[in-house]
UniProtKB/TrEMBL annotation:
Organism: Brasilonema sennae CENA114
Domain named Amine oxidase: residues: 20-500
Chain segments annotated as transmembrane: 12-30
UniProt gene name: crtD
Record-given protein name: C-3',4' desaturase CrtD
GO molecular function, one term: oxidoreductase activity
A biological process from GO: carotenoid metabolic process
Keywords noted in UniProt: Membrane, Transmembrane, Transmembrane helix
Domain of life: Bacteria
Length: 511
């Protein structure tokens, strides 16, 4: 017998996946009166924003810093609606300390806008007009996003929401819709400023998966400005898991259910409309079909097509197949003695090295360091988590996977040793995750992370919609607008919830 049956008096929603996108959608829908069942194949909820424990250390699996906690920010808005407490957090200041190859002092991305302005003017003379353009585009885009547009629109209701979010100020962004960051740099005669370009490449890749030449300018304006007040990035007290825990609390308070270790194997479609899902209970092996009025898929676009099988619409499938290859991540998790950490170490650093090795010369390590009392390490100890982008393919074809993982681990430790005091006597725990690890624990196709990339062809108006071509099947998460990050996927979830509600109102006249 199935472990759960959703009630039949309220519209029934099944959410596939308890990442931040799925939990947010599920909690909001339960709060708005739907009967919600969330299924996740993993052991703990949170997906790329979950955690694991080793030897008294708590490691954040992927996401380590959070945007959208400020008043009016997306997590703040959603937690307020759900009537749950926002997690305790400390602002990241600097948001990131960026070390360019061969340089000993970092470029500090300060939280205070004036301090950041002085820093960038010192670091990148003559670039201020470019930053002013970014600030103007950010202001217009941020206000627009705050009015909950539906992007890309797929029907009249979506178009009306999009139109309602427009203001005369939004139109300043329109001429730049097809600009990349590289185009803007050239327009300001900064195309040959190698140092600025390297800095931007490093920072943009973290948010958009691609570099200055490919990142859509309008997306970059937000990514590069969100770390300053009145917005800002935060380090959560305890661990990243607290976000999922609070959302789960809200879901259950309103009668919703989460079943872990339950894999959705197939999405059922009848006459162009979703009808339910096929579920496998991993513990018992039992397989059954659960009917639903709506299915919200918190998976990658690639996984969605696989779950639909031969019911995947041809054009949609082709579009997914034609996407440029998505990135994977190699992540190293170190539990260390606090003597390994230099004094006054910022919480987030980014290093690019002139170094040979498996990680590559043109790649960076993004590093998050715990601080005393933040709940991640026992007293006198600390965690260091470092991630770099990798091509997923080599991890699947390698005949010596363990050997490759070992090489990457050694290379990462050797690179990190240039900044941290990493010796056998200071390293207490070492563990690494590869695309194969992410595929196993988050079920993401090939272990890809971070969404479809914010190129011109895939960002905002040109990206994947929450509304899929199958009626009542919704896609949420980092494959959709506005892209990766816990804040991004929360916007995506909120949009899908509003679309589902609008359909209920239209059909049943319920308000
Ligand atoms: C190394 C790394 C560092 C990052 N750093 C940051 C950061 O500092 N700040 C930030 O905001 N973001 C960061 N991100 C990005 C962020 O973590 C993700 O964009 C976001 O968490 C994705 O959330 P999601 O809800 O879209 O999906 P996911 O987190 O992928 O969750 C999907 C869930 O669905 C489940 N699932 C999938 N398929 C099925 C199925 N068929 N049946 C049942 N369950 C299924 C999975 O088990 C998983 O729990 C980082 C990501 C990585 C990998």
């Amino acid at each position: 017998m199935p472990g759960h049956r959703v009630g039949n008096s309220k519209p029934r929603i099944i959410v596939i996946g308890a990442g931040i996108g799925g939990l947010t959608a599920g909690a909001l829908l339960a709060h708005r009166g739907y009967s919600v069942l969330i299924l996740d194949q993993a052991l703990v909820p949170g997906g790329c924003a979950s955690t694991f424990q080793r030897k008294g250390f708590t490691f954040d699996v992927g996401a380590t810093q959070v945007a959208g906690l400020e008043a009016g920010g997306i997590h703040h808005r959603i937690f307020t609606e759900l009537e749950i407490d926002l997690p305790q957090a400390t602002p990241c200041d600097p948001a990131c300390a960026v070390y360019l190859p061969g340089e000993q002092t970092p470029i500090n991305v300060w939280r205070d806008p004036e301090k950041w302005k002085q820093e960038r003017q010192r670091q990148f003379p003559f670039s201020e007009p470019f930053w002013q353009l970014m600030a103007a585009l950010f202001k217009a885009s941020w206000e627009f996003q705050g009015r909950d547009p539906v992007l890309p629109p797929r029907n009249v209701w979506d178009l009306v929401q999009l139109t309602k979010a427009l203001r005369p100020s939004t139109f300043i962004t329109v001429p730049y819709t097809l600009f990349t960051v590289g185009d803007a740099l050239r327009a300001y005669k900064l195309g040959n400023d190698h140092r600025l370009k390297t800095f931007l490449d490093l920072q943009l890749k973290l948010y958009s998966q691609v570099d200055t030449e490919e990142t859509a300018l309008l997306y970059a304006a937000t990514a590069l400005s969100v770390s300053q007040l009145p917005q800002g990035l935060y380090h959560l007290q305890g661990s990243m898991q607290v976000l999922s825990d609070r959302l789960l609390e809200a879901l259950e308070k309103k009668g919703g259910t989460l079943l872990m270790r339950h894999t959705v194997e197939h999405i059922e479609v009848e006459k162009g409309k979703v009808s339910g899902v096929v579920i496998r209970n991993q513990k018992t092996g039992e397989v059954w079909t659960e009917a639903a009025d709506h299915v919200v898929a918190n998976v990658t676009a690639q996984n969605l097509v696989q779950l639909l099988g031969n019911k995947a619409p041809h054009g949609y499938k082709r579009r997914v197949e034609k996407l440029p290859p998505a990135s994977g991540a190699f992540v190293i998790y170190l539990g260390v003695d606090e003597s390994a950490i230099p004094s006054r170490c910022p919480p987030h650093l980014q290093f690019m090295y002139n170094a040979k090795g498996p990680i590559g010369n043109n790649n960076s390590l993004f590093v998050s360091v715990s601080h005393p009392g933040d709940g991640r390490a026992p007293e006198g100890k600390a965690t260091i988590i470092a991630s770099s982008f990798v091509d997923t393919k080599q991890w699947w074809v390698s005949e010596d996977y363990e050997g490759l993982k070992q090489q990457y681990t050694q290379d990462a430790v050797s690179r990190l040793s240039k900044f941290f005091y990493l010796k056998p006597e200071t390293i207490i725990h070492v563990e690494a995750a590869t695309p194969r690890t992410f595929a196993r624990y988050t079920a993401r196709d090939q272990g890809i992370v971070g969404g479809i990339g914010q190129r011109i062809s895939t960002f905002g108006p040109f990206g994947f919609a929450n509304r899929t071509p199958i009626n009542n099947l919704w896609l949420v998460g980092d494959s959709t607008h506005p892209g990766e990050g816990t804040a991004g996927v929360s916007y995506s979830a909120l949009t899908a919830v509003k679309q589902i509600e609008a359909q209920k109102v239209a059909r049943y006249g319920i308000t």
